[in-house]
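Consider the tokenized backbone below.
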């Protein structure tokens, strides 16, 4: 086996990728992802020798760190969730092969997460995802979160609901229908309840009407489900770097989803 070391400076990972990677470590620490289960699933496709070679390749890339086999697998799982190929940009031919391995690790990691969740209980079964005759999925709005007629209170009510009922005080990763992983954070809850009209430019931003803001809040109440039925649409750059050191500094990935109102 040829020892490979990623060339320093050839990779530039986004803040979103790094956040998903770090959340992977949290999920492993909390028992949501089991490394042994991931390896067992990988063994259905790869031989023991191939699995050893995969781990050795990773350990070789960090040969001065004293990384163990267990630590190598944890890094692979976290990199797969962050879609971070540390070998990309190297001259080694294994870089392309590892991209396939990384995708398989991600697939099996997500599969073990679903197994670990188990079926929802009656009180936990909050799903409102429906399927149209054409096979396309959408979310049927049915979560009654807003009370009163004061829009200022709506924002506070919804931010509390997202943080306590959907996030449960933790950063959570949700997969989209086409396989992307989106992270829902406390900052996300704050942004989702912003009353300004959505636009990439920050200049001259207007407020939504009460009616439109209420619609946005009802959609925000289903953010977890909307992510699950969402599909990537296009990328939009951060115009004039107006979001530097803020969400969106690396640009915006736009997703398409459908919400059917009450």
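A designed sequence for it:
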């Amino acid at each position: 086996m040829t020892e490979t070391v990623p060339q320093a400076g050839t990779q530039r990972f986004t803040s979103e990728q790094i956040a998903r990677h770090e959340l992977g470590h949290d999920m492993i620490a909390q028992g949501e992802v089991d490394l042994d289960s991931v390896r067992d699933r990988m063994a259905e496709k790869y031989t023991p020798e191939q699995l050893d070679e995969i781990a050795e390749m990773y350990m070789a890339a960090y040969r001065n760190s004293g990384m163990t086999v267990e630590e190598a697998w944890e890094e692979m799982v976290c990199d797969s969730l962050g879609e971070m190929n540390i070998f990309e940009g190297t001259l080694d031919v294994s870089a392309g092969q590892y991209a396939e391995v990384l995708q398989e690790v991600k697939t099996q990691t997500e599969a073990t997460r679903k197994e670990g969740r188990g079926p929802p209980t009656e009180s936990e079964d909050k799903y409102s995802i429906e399927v149209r005759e054409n096979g396309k999925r959408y979310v049927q709005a049915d979560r009654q979160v807003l009370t009163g007629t004061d829009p200022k209170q709506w924002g506070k009510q919804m931010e509390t609901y997202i943080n306590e009922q959907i996030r449960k005080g933790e950063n959570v990763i949700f997969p989209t229908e086409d396989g992307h992983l989106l992270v829902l954070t406390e900052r996300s809850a704050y942004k989702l309840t912003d009353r300004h009209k959505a636009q990439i430019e920050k200049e001259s931003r207007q407020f939504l009407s009460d009616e439109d803001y209420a619609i946005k809040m009802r959609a925000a109440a289903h953010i977890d489900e909307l992510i699950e039925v969402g599909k990537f649409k296009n990328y939009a750059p951060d115009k004039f770097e107006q979001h530097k050191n803020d969400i969106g500094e690396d640009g915006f990935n736009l997703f398409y989803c459908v919400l059917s109102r009450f």
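The beta strands are 129-131, 137-140, 172-175, 181-184, 231-236, 252-256, 259-260.
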